[in-house]
Amino acid sequence: MSAQHDDAVRDGTEEAPAAKDGETAPIRDLLVSAAFELFAEHGYESTTVDEIARRAGVGRRSFFRYFPTKEAVVFPDHDRALSELVTYTDEGPRDVDPVGRACEAALLVTRMYAANADFSVRRYALTRSVPALRKHETTVIQSYERALTAYLERRFATLSDGGLRAHVIAAGIVAAHNYGLRAWLRAGAQGDAATGVTEALNLIQRTWSDAGESLVVVTRTNTPMWEVLRRVEAALRDPGAPDGTRSQK
User: Fold this and answer.
1) N or C, which end of the chain is more exposed by having fewer CB within 10 Å?
2) CA distance 105 to 107
3) What's the alpha-carbon Rg for the chain, to the nearest Å?
């Protein structure tokens, strides 16, 4: 190896060492792989950024070009997932149910985890055991919640309780997503990750979505409340029933 190459590695200008198959591996991937190897060998706390860079065959400055902290190397795919989530909500049609759209956006994060299930399981185990990583994960989760809140605030801008509704629903989506995702991770990533997450998100959508059909019950102003409720219940059971579709004289 030349002295010029050594200097490049030390100052971070070396883009990537050649992989065994002769192709160039992305530096980001090399750093993540090196980090998890060292975490497994020496533990997270005992591993330094310099050691990660050295194992990856790049310089210290190269590490910080891709990751601002050691914690960030454990979550290398979240910036991309957040960007995709924001793009998905921003580019969606205006006539769709915003709660459904937000739930679908959350599933993009699920697919990111499922795309590399083994890595996701290892990261989950590491994060559970390292307080600094749990704290960093919280900031990552908050970024998703802020993005969903911002989208829903725009969609609910004409509602008197739009701000409150946006914050409550976004928090619910994130909580439901995490519930389903963590159940999948605890099970060792067995089965389809989206199944449990979708089930949890469906609860949010059923609770908050306005995409369903409207039900109109027409009664006289002097109709007793018990009779109004009876007609509503009948209409919900069978929207085509006479009690739910026409006025009663």
Assistant:
1) C
2) 5
3) 26
* Distance set, CA 210 to CA 98, 106, 149, 157, 241 (Å): 9, 19, 17, 15, 23
Residue 96, token pair as written in the block: 């769709």
pTM score above 0.85:
no
Under DSSP, is residue 67 helix (H, G, I), strand (E, B) or coil?
coil
d(CA 234, CA 221) in angstroms, rounded, equals: 19
CA atoms within 13 A on the CB side of 249: 0
**Three-class SS of residue 24?**
strand
Q: Give the closest residue to 29 by CA, choosing from 104, 129, 121, 116.
A: 116
Containing domain of residue 232, as a range? 214-249
The pair of structure tokens assigned to 215 is: 């039900």
In the Cβ-directed half-sphere of 11, how many Cα atoms lie within 13 Å?
A: 6
pLDDT tens for 90-104 read 997 887 899 999 999
Do 238 and 123 share a structural domain?
no
- The count of other CB atoms within 10 Å of the CB of residue 8 is 16
Do 161 and 210 touch, CB atoms closer than 8 A?
A: no
- Record the tokens describing residue 202, joined without a space: 């469906």
- Detail the DSSP E strand segments found in the chain: none
Q: Do 116 and 224 belong together in one domain?
A: no
The per-residue pLDDT for 12 is 40
Distance CA 154, CA 7 (A): 51
Written as six digits, the tokens of 45 are 């706390």
**Contact of 82 with 106, CB cutoff 8 Å:** no
